[in-house]
Amino acid sequence: GTLLHPSILRRVIGHEGDHLRICPALLLVKPDIGDTEQRADYPAVLPDSRSRELFASAGHAELPRDQRTVRGTFVQDLNDHDTHLLDLFEGNEYTREIVEVYPLGPLTSLSSTPLSSIPSSSTAATNSYVVPLDGRTLSASSRRSLPVETYIYAGPLTDLSPELWCYEDFVREFAWK
Fold first, then answer.
1. 3-state secondary structure of 3
2. How far apart are the C-alpha atoms of 163 and 57, rounded to whole Å?
3. Which range, 15-19, 66-70, 164-168, is most confident?
4. Residue 19 near residue 80 (C-beta atoms within 8 A)
5. Helix 6-13 vs helix 80-90: angle between axes, to the nearest 10 degrees?
6. Domains along the chain with CATH numbers
7. Rg for the chain (alpha carbons), in Å?
8. Contact assessment for residue 37 and residue 44, using Cβ atoms and an 8 Å cutoff
9. Class of residue 110 by CB neighbours under 10 A (exposed 0-12, middle 13-18, buried 19+)
10. pLDDT band at residue 24, thresholds of 50, 70 and 90?
């Protein structure tokens, strides 16, 4: 979610990430959805069963398969201190769980990404580091999944809004704050 933006990731871990390598990645089907929290402006990843329950409680039909993806960033070589800071950032509403992701490109150094490509509130979100929306973008080279840890929402479903979270909207409206 919010951590897929390199500038936000650097801000959370408190350094430029010279030892970290990143690439955009997709999480497909399990867990399958990012939702916007009602009291906050950040997403929550849910397992399939919980997202179905959330959407059904609002009278929504099941999401089409091509919308059952979560965009994110695969980060390699986090140390224990980096992970601790990420755990603090995510808080007790989330648990860290192992999932499979599909890298969408080569790994690059976190420190080589622009220092701040977060636009101001009046600037259009034109960040070059935007992960494609769905699995149709998986090339032959990216069809191999990798086991990784990610943060899964563990709080009550009543705190969530049954809608898809939009990264571009987040960058445009909130990331500059």
1. helix
2. 12
3. 15-19
4. no
5. 110
6. 2-175 (3.10.490.10)
7. 16
8. yes
9. buried
10. confident
Integer Cα distance of 65 and 148 in angstroms: 22
Percent helix, strand, coil in the chain (nearest 5)? 35, 30, 40
**Lookup result for tokens 């840890």:** 149
Q: What is the pTM of this model?
A: 0.73
CA angle 7, 10, 12 (to 5 degrees): 110
Q: Which of 119, 142, 157 is closest to 69 using CA atoms? A: 142
Alpha helices in the chain (DSSP H): 6-13, 48-57, 80-90, 167-170
Provide the 3-class DSSP secondary structure of residue 144.
coil
Helix (H) or strand (E) holding 39: none
